């Protein structure tokens, strides 16, 4: 009786754990899937984002009249709009577009102030926060000495407009005062439409607005669809990854929970016979057993929801930061769906198993506890007995054949566990490779311009710094410092490419840059003057193929280059052209010198020594530091958390199966111990009973995990419009695959260890009384 | 007189609930003896036998077998002790249903690491002595109760233990098979095997032993030599 209670306690614990892990994995996976697919939509809805942001060159009255255009449901504005260029150290810096709004609140585009306060006094400005924002520190001032009255604005806060309506906000009066005289009166008007879901709907609505405005006064407009596309490009990379993990987690949860519940009810079959023998109706039996499974499942589910939310906190915080949205949370419907789903699964499985047991004739049910031997089990025992291995081990090896259904369930758990581990290892290797390829600065030491001094107003004093036009003094210093092996100089210039808008960056190298970590996707590296390599983004945007010639205009000078290769580079949307500097006459800035060191040279010491030599030359050397990305941090921590969970769930599946097996054989184990089987031999036998499925699970799971990785990673790339380098795709070599294959065995042995210890510890005298 | 094989001194054993299953039990069994432990159901007979077999540990007192303090052995030590010194026969045979008769019999030697050839010879010998060689490759499920108990006895003797312990060996058998097993135990004892048989069947005790120890409520109440 006591043994029976202890056994039920273990079974209860297993159900609690299985339900808990299943819920944790599903809440985490499902929740993150939803959250990261819709951060923009949520924030946009919260702020009543502008479907259309229009710049109108007309008087306020005429602009306001457009609120009555067909399809318009709400408007904000007109707000005076002005584009100004602050000056620092006598040089003009980047242009800023300010909207004149006395308050952040509005029916459309209700802006959230994230830091400091709203600029509600003349002489104050609130800047846009986030990605597109600038590096202006709070409390700094922006001065416009060339505007009438030399106005100066004080930065009093930062605010976020999901619709990205302006770079900063000032009072309406201040905006009017900033407008250079003689420029046409310009206003911003924000609209929401009753139908804005598609590009076609937006076109219709925009046309209606344009028609309601004075002719030719609509100087510019931006659809919220474009803003959303840009925002979601970043989140899109998560989706295939989370889907893969989510599906894995769900399949495993269903498998393990169903298995555990069916097993626990099934192992109670003999008891069910007893209950019926003493007068329980089948209905009462079923109710009792469903209750026995559901109560621990509810407990596990509650724990799982809590753990899922706790684990999600740091990951969601990273996600919020990365996408500049407000604090994200797992939506309640995910909890409800997961909890409901898992509990329904438990109830249905328990019901099915209990009904089956309840339907058994009482006599048969009473006989079940004696576990009649199976022909398969006997044959397997005969075969394994011949193996030249210790008998305790060969007895264990025969076990999987005795209960094939249970064996398949355990095998499935291990296969999924192996898939999860393989996928996770592959993914983090890929992400690492992408990170390395993206930063492509794998030089040992980088020489950059010395950082600019900050002026009295907190703004950098002077134009963005660059290395001197003549770098020969610097390169001489590099060569003079012992340990340098090779170096190249990077020159940059903004270029225009016919047929494209925006700026393409021309990057030219003096010296051999082929060791610089640029990842070649197709074709060849630059072989000499006149040849160029370009990122995938450039090829897609301009329709260029390898072998084509591209023509760039730099400072009015035309440069023709033949594209010889495609490289991996995400910066500037891939709008870059890399070439050899030799023969280029256009003016370019020298931005960087990359230094490769002789093996054994300490980069930090080299950089320190070089920096001292470079100080009078206005340059600074630093050892290369691995970059890290928030997104990759998020993905890596997610991967780790989900993998651990799935491996634990797989181990639990094995534990459950072995537990049921050792429990059924408690008498046989007792007999073997009475015949002189030591605790060590008992554990050895139990572990041996799972080695075969561990090995097969690894052999099946690892290739499946590799295939999953090879399908998901390119999909992640595609969803962001990126072609990934081979190093990021082909991450599995034979030793890695072999090591991962052993993972199946590790899961199996880990899962079997506890039941093995229990079997070894069971008092023999007690076991033999089980009759 | 030969030296004692089993020596119990003042042995007590109580389970969590209820009165002690055994208390103040002292017993000496010498080599070559055949002892019957008699008593009603629940009187502590199996408890006593399990303590001798090292399957259980006493709460008080000492259990010494062939000079080994069995009550002090750890789990692994007890297993090795059983392998070498004890053969056990149970009421419900406790054969492993997945293994053939021959594989059941050879198991103790395999756990003890006996060489294959020696084990094969010993198995053949036992199959023959016990008259079950016809069934060597059968599974226990196919055999009658009496045949099964013969297999169990053969398995118990596999490692030539100095001590054969039997707990109600005829309890699950019909009369004829029971007598057959009793005869077998007597013959073994006649060949020098020390035997301890637990039973509540006086007839069996008389048929195969020379001494009866009677237990009532965990106390040894009589210890008499019987001539046969
Ligand atoms: N493992 C156990 N747990 C609790 N009580 C036990 C256990 N084994 C035996 N007992 C009790 O100890 C007493 C003696 O049992 P046992 O030695 O099996 O008697 P016998 O073999 O003479 O029938 C009985 O009351 C029995 O219920
Ligand atoms: Mg008994």
Automatic annotation (TrEMBL), chain B:
PROSITE patterns cross-referenced by the UniProt entry: ABC_TRANSPORTER_1, ABC_TRANSPORTER_2
InterPro entries: AAA+_ATPase, ABC_transporter-like_ATP-bd, ABC_transporter-like_CS, ABC_transpr_LolD-like, MacB-like_ATP-bd, P-loop_NTPase
CDD domains given in the database record: ABC_MJ0796_LolCDE_FtsE
Location of the ABC transporter domain: 6-228
Highest taxon of the lineage: Bacteria
Record's keyword annotation contains Membrane: no
Alphabetized GO MF terms: ATP binding; ATP hydrolysis activity; transmembrane transporter activity
A GO CC annotation given for this chain: membrane protein complex
Record key words, sorted: ATP-binding, Nucleotide-binding, Transport
Ranges in coiled-coil conformation: none
SMART domains per UniProt: AAA (SM00382)
Keyword Heme applies: no
PANTHER family (alphabetical): IMPORT ATP-BINDING PROTEIN (PTHR24220)
Protein name (Swiss-Prot/TrEMBL): Putative ABC transport system ATP-binding protein
Source organism of this protein record: Phytomonospora endophytica
